[in-house]
Structures are given as C-alpha cells and as structure tokens.
Amino acid sequence: MLTRILTALPLIAGFLAALLWASPELWQGIIAAILWIGGVEWARLARLENTAAYLFASILVLIGLTVGWLLPGQPWVFVPCGLFWIAAPWLFHQGTQLTQKPLLLTLGMLILPTTYLAFIELRQHAPYLLLAIVGLVAVADSSAYFAGRQFGKHKLAPTISPGKTWEGVAGAILGVSLYIALLWQFWGQNHLPASLPVLLVIAWGLLALSIMGDLFESQLKRLAGVKDSGNLLPGHGGVLDRIDSLTAALPVAALLWWMQ
Please, what's the b/e burial string for 145-176 (b: 16 or more CB within 10 A of its CB; e: otherwise)? Predict the structure, then answer.
C-alpha cells in the first residue's frame, strides 16, 4: 500500500499540473506518450515481441494524431468504441475469450486511440469535466478496493478477476454517489447542465463502464498469463493497469458531452 501511495502521489500531481497549465501541444505529447506505452503493453499482452510491439504502439499514436487532426470535435468517432463497451457485458456473460491475436490488435486500434482522443477533446473543451471523470474513476477504484478487502465475499467475475467482489462494486457505488453529491453541492450547480438525479444516473453508468474496462484488461492479462500489463509503475503495474477503467469511461463521457 505504501508503494502504491508513493507512486500515485507524483502521478496525481503531474496530471493536475499538466491538465491545468500545459500548453495544448505539450498535453497532446504527454497523452501520446501514455498511449504509446499503453500500446506496447497491449501488444505484449497479444504476444507481440519487441520490434513488433513498438511498431504497433507507433501505429496507435499515428491513428490518434491523424483522426484528431482530420476530424476535430466529431462526436461520432467515439461511437464504435462506446458500442463495444456497451456490448462488453454480453461478451462476458457468453464467456467470450479473446485469444485471437488479430482481434486483440484490432480492438487495441479501436480502444486506445479513442481514449487518446477523449483526453484531447475533453481537455480542450471541458477540462474540469475531464478532471471530474478521472476523479470519479479514482474514487470508484479506491472505494471498491477497500470495500472488497473489508467485506468481500461474493465474487464478481471469478474466472476473469478472482479478487473483485460484488461488495466491492457496492462500495464503488456508494463512493461514487457521495463524490457526485459533493461535486454537485460545491461546484456542479453552477457548472453542470443537469440535475443531481440525472448526474447520479450518468455517474453510475460511467462506473459500470469503468468496471467493464477493468474486467476486460484483467481478462487480457489472464489469457496472457501475467499479473500486470507492465512494471513501469511500482505498486500499480503498467500504464494499462492505471487507465483500463478510463479506456471505457472516457470515450463514452466524451460522446455524452458532445451530445448535450
């Protein structure tokens, strides 16, 4: 836990500093670097080796940069990724195991560049909304972790991620609900274009998506026979281990923002 906290503190500080003060070009470079590292980790989960993994990650960055340059502010670029995450519960229910390398790489080309675009678009048009969503996912993860450790008995998806429990989900719902209520009380009434009940429903939906993102990456790691996607972040694993929930929640949040 101490290692996790000591790693998380500079990450949080760096993210806040970049979000609030970085130039658009620097922000784009930071997110592109995160995308590249995440792409290498994804490629290795799909059993690509060094050169091929680096090439795949570079292609992901090129896709994100190209789509962002050619189609800025186009909400429909988030639709395919959103549809995939909406279908994810059905895939898990069917016991689908994504073992085919071409399918895994194709999904990486869909999910990771779209996450990059969500970071870019939301930071440009609604930076505090981006911060609120990242905060929501962090609160959900922390609440689920502590509730699961304290009360967890009923497994959420034992064949995918044995450590996750329904008690953890309940803790995440409670934590996110409190988080949204506090945001609404101290900030949202003047900045968010929806009532508190509507915001809670949206937040619970994003929470469900974040769980899907977490479970999906857990399945990829399980199929690859590894505990973490990488070892870059002590106590946390790899970049994908930190952004797995965001890969599902952020693109849908960006789509909802554009549709308001």
Answer: bebbeeebeebbbeebbeebbbbbbbbbbebb
Helix axes 50-70, 101-125, angle to 10 degrees: 40
- Distance of alpha carbon 202 from the chain centroid: 16
The answer to whether 133 and 206 are in contact (CB under 8 A) is yes
Per-residue pLDDT of the chain (260 residues; tens, 9 = 90+): 667 777 778 888 899 999 999 999 999 999 999 999 999 999 999 889 889 999 999 999 999 999 988 888 788 899 999 888 888 777 766 656 666 788 889 999 999 999 999 999 999 988 988 999 999 999 999 899 889 888 988 898 887 788 889 999 999 999 999 999 998 888 766 666 678 888 899 999 999 999 999 988 888 888 888 887 877 766 677 899 889 999 999 999 999 888 77
Nearest to 68 by CA among 56, 59, 77: 77
Length of the chain in terms of residues written: 260
Name the helix (H) or strand (E) containing 220: helix 196-224
Query: Are the beta carbons of 108 and 42 closer than 8 angstroms?
Result: yes
Compute the half-sphere exposure of residue 20: CA atoms within 13 Å on the CB side of its CA: 6
Helix (H) or strand (E) holding 151, with range, is helix 127-151
How far is the CA of 247 from the CAs of 13, 51, 112, 165, 239, in angstroms?
21, 25, 7, 21, 11
Please name the amino acid found at residue 201: V
Rounded distance between C-alpha atoms, residue 249 and residue 251, angstroms = 6
Domain ranges of the chain: 2-259
Question: pTM to 2 decimals?
Answer: 0.91
